[in-house]
Each structure stands twice: as C-alpha cells, then as structure tokens.
Write a structure and sequence with these properties.
The structure holds two protein chains of two kinds. Chain A is built from six helices and two strands. Chain A is mainly alpha-helical. In chain A, helix 4 packs parallel to helix 6. Chain A starts with 10 loop residues before the first helix and ends in a 7-residue tail after the last strand. Chain B is of the alpha+beta class. Classes of the chains: A mainly alpha, B alpha+beta.
C-alpha cells in the first residue's frame, strides 16, 4: 500500500493513517501468535524437521517419521497391529509368489508326464526284465544295449531313467561289466 | 625321361611333402580316459575325445548321449571307458547339464562326476584346438 498514491491527501492525513495502521498490524500479529499457541502449534513446530529418508519402493506406502511420539499402544492395539501386519505380509508374499510363478519357465523336473499306456506298460515290464537279467549275470553286451534301446525309445523320460538307473549304479560300483564298445546303454 | 614320367615324379614328391609331419603344427595334448575317485569306487571320469579316438588301444571311449524325445524331457547319459576296460556312466535330466553335454566335439576334453545314485553332478566340456588329434 502506497500512502503517497492517495490523491488529495496531505502530510497530516498520512500521519493519521500511520497512527491507525501500525497498531492494527501489531494487534493482528499478536493475536495470531496467541491464537496459534492456544491451538497447540507454534511457528517453530509447525514445520517439523524432515529427516533424510531413502526413496521408498513405488508399491510400499510412504511413511514419514516426524519425531518421537509419546503415544502408547495398549495390548489389544498391539495385537490388532500385529494381525494387520501379518495380513499385509501374507498378501505381499502371495503376490510375489504369483509373480515368480508367472515368470518361471517349466523345467524338466516340473513337467508332469502322463501315465503309461498299456503298450508302454508292456514295454516297461520287458525292459525291466532285460535289466534284471543283466544285473543277475553281471555282464552287459552290445546286444543287450540294442534290445534295451528299442524298448526305451517309446518310454517317457521318468520311466526311462527308472529303468536305466539300476544299470548305471551297478556299473559304477563294479557289479556290472560292459563287454561291448561304445556307449554302454 | 619322358614327359609323363617327369610329371609322375613331381606328383609323388609333392604328395610325400604334403603327407609329412611338417604340414600339421600347433600345440596338442592328449588326455587319456581316466577314472576319478577312489580305486574301486569311481565318482567321475575325464578324457579327451580325440585322445580316446586315436589312442593306441582299441578300448578307450568317452562321450555323452542325449535322448530328446518329442514332448518329453531330454536326458543325457555320459559314459567313459578307460584303457583297462572299466566303464562308468551317469544320467541327468538337468537342463543345464544336458545342454553342456550337447557341446561336445572332437576338440573336447570331457569331465563328468556322479553321485552314488548314478546322477551326474557335473558335466564339463572343455573345447580347444590342443585337444584335436
């Protein structure tokens, strides 16, 4: 406000304006301070010091700790708070697991194989008989290999491994000798 | 000496020169097939494909077979036979081990170890020019 800008006013009117305006301004400031104290705030505490915090992850709620609190939770409140936190953690874990499952490609171990057909069951029985025969004799020949390979060709992986494993274990422990050349099985 | 005889002589000389050892150079190393682990209880094997193939005995052999039936999990069976005729082998359906076993060539030294259950615990394929024989 510029007092000089008021047209038609002299020095006296300016003095009058100052005499009235300055006390009014002081009165307003004083009243404001009194009022703010009455409401429990003060200019020094209205803006709390903000502690430097790490950038929160986008999905986590942002929490700003302004200062120490003298509030105390009762036992019921503690229990309720724990329950809420458990629920939150469980929900976040479920979401994380769902995302991990969605991003995972099936491995050989994960693939479920269908049950054996009747023909495969017959072949499996025959293959097991061949294996048992070889284990009993302690020797394995190229003919045995050829015969077993023909059987294994139509068996799924898990079953094939199940048939071959006893032979491998026996061979590695010296209980089965391969009398041929090339791959034993 | 007729012209045809001269040409024949030159051809024979060139053939002898090209077949001599001087045409094959470079560092080579033979890794014979060797079983690893305690005597009588092996738990692995190592050997060069080239070394086994061109060994003086007709017994050494090392390699991996890979079964890849359509719609089913691939399986690898690695095996090794040393000069004494002892054979060891292991099985795996581990995708990484099967993939490694598929990288064998004549320039490979293969090393594999296995558990008491016959499962491959390690398949190592070392490819390099020095393993070619």
């Amino acid at each position: 406000v510029s007092l000089d800008a008021a047209p038609g006013r002299g020095p006296r009117s300016r003095l009058v304006a100052l005499a009235v305006g300055v006390p009014c301004i002081l009165l307003g400031l004083g009243g404001g301070i009194v009022l703010s104290r009455a409401l429990g705030t003060s200019p020094s505490t209205a803006v709390a010091p903000v502690m430097p915090t790490r950038a929160a992850p986008p999905e986590s709620p942002s929490v700003l700790v302004v200062g120490s609190s003298s509030a105390r939770l009762g036992a019921d409140d503690h229990a309720a708070l724990r329950a809420m936190m458990r629920e939150e953690l469980a929900a976040e874990r479920a979401v994380a697991e769902a995302r991990a499952d969605a991003g995972r490609t099936p491995t050989g171990e994960d693939r479920a194989e269908p049950p054996l057909s009747n023909e495969q069951l017959k072949v499996y029985d025959r293959a097991r008989a061949e294996v048992d025969h070889g284990l009993a004799g302690g020797t394995w020949t190229e003919d045995d290999r050829a015969q077993l390979r023909a059987s294994l060709a139509i068996l799924p992986t898990e079953t094939r491994i199940e048939v071959l494993r006893p032979l491998v274990i026996a061979q590695n422990s010296g209980k089965l000798h391969f009398e041929g050349r090339g791959p034993p099985f | 000496m007729s012209t045809s005889v001269r040409f024949a002589s030159v051809g024979v000389a060139l053939t002898v020169c090209m077949a001599s050892g001087g045409a094959l150079a470079g560092y080579t190393q033979a890794i014979p097939v060797t079983l690893e682990g305690a005597a009588g209880a092996p738990n692995g094997a190592i050997g060069g494909i080239g070394a086994a193939r061109y060994s003086s005995d007709p017994v050494q052999d090392i390699g991996c077979e890979i079964y890849s039936p359509a719609g089913s999990t691939p399986t690898a069976l690695c095996y090794a036979t040393n000069a004494a005729g002892t054979t060891v082998s292991c099985l795996t359906t581990d995708v990484n081990l099967v993939a490694t076993a598929g990288r064998i060539s004549e320039a490979t030294v293969l090393n594999f170890t296995f558990t008491s259950n016959g499962d491959c615990a390690l398949v190592m394929v070392d490819n390099g020019s020095s393993w070619v024989h």
